[in-house]
Structures are given as structure tokens and as C-alpha cells.
Amino acid sequence: VGSEMCIRDRPKYLRRPTGATVTDVLFPLDKMKPTTEVILVEGLFDVINLWQHGCRNALCTFGTQSFGAKKVQLLDKLGITSVQIMMDGDSAGILAAKKISDLLEKADFHTKIIQLPSYQDPGDLNPDEIKYHLSTS
Predict the structure, then answer these.
(1) Widest CA span of the chain, in angstroms?
(2) H or E segment at 83?
(3) Which of 24, 45, 95, 104 has the greatest number of C-beta atoms within 10 Å?
(4) Which residues have a Cβ under 8 Å from the Cβ of 21 and sit 6 or more positions away?
């Protein structure tokens, strides 16, 4: 491979709408019922899949690099106290889960990282796999 980036390590989606900013938004926050626990996932397809299979407290962070203090404050204002972090099973997802967990723990949130198998995404999971990962991690 040399100095070239391995195809598995490249971002899957390189486009976003012009002018879109994702640094202070979690999706679909406006559709979620009041709760104290959420599941954070990387992308739109991930959150759609979890919602389709009954996880109506899943929120999309819009990638591995867009979770910061603004989103921590947003979760705090909503009364969230516990966060399950289910990033993709690739290196970027693993690093992001740790970073997000550290940020949240510093703000007194209870966190749990759900480690998916290598290169598996929440968007690819079937209902049984979702249930398994949420109950065993």
C-alpha cells in the first residue's frame, strides 16, 4: 500500500449540500421523544436504519469529525444523561468513539462504546444484530 490511503480508510461520502454546517446539529433531534438516553451514530444511513428497526433515540453526528462542545451542550440542555456510541467498525469510527466518549465523560455523561466488527456499519445491521450489539456492549 505504501503511502497511498487504503480504500477502506477513505470517507464513504465526500459531498454535502452547499453551505451546510453540521457542527451544531444532531439528526433527527426534532423527531425524537423526550428521553435521557441516546445512541450516537456517524451517518444518515446509520440513523435511518436504527430508526426503521425501532431505535427511536438514535442520532446522527454527521461524521467522525463533527462532534464537539456544541453538541455536548445540546445533549445536556435536552436532559440526556447516558449516551451509547455506535460508530462504524473502521479505524475512523473507533477513534471517533473514543474522542466522543472522552468529551461526554468530562461533562458528566455516562457513556458506553459499542464496538462493531471491523468495517461493519450501523446502517448495515439487521434487527437481530442491532439488538445483540445494544445488549452486549
Answers:
(1) 49
(2) strand 82-85
(3) 104
(4) none
Distance between CA atoms of residues 18 and 76, nearest Å: 29
Order of strands, sheet of 82-85, starting from the edge strand that comes earlier in the sequence: 58-60, 37-41, 82-85, 110-113
d(CA 113, CA 94): 9
Q: How far is residue 30's CA from residue 54's CA, in Å, rounded to a whole number?
A: 17
First to last CA, the chain: 33
Residue 60, H or E segment:
strand 58-60
CB 32 within 8 A of CB 52: no
Give pTM, 2 decimals.
0.85
Q: 451509547: which residue's cell?
A: 84
Convert the pLDDT of each residue in 111-127 to its tens digit. 999 999 998 999 999 99
For residues 66 and 26, what is the distance between their CA atoms, to the nearest angstrom? 10
**Letter for the amino acid at 60?**
C
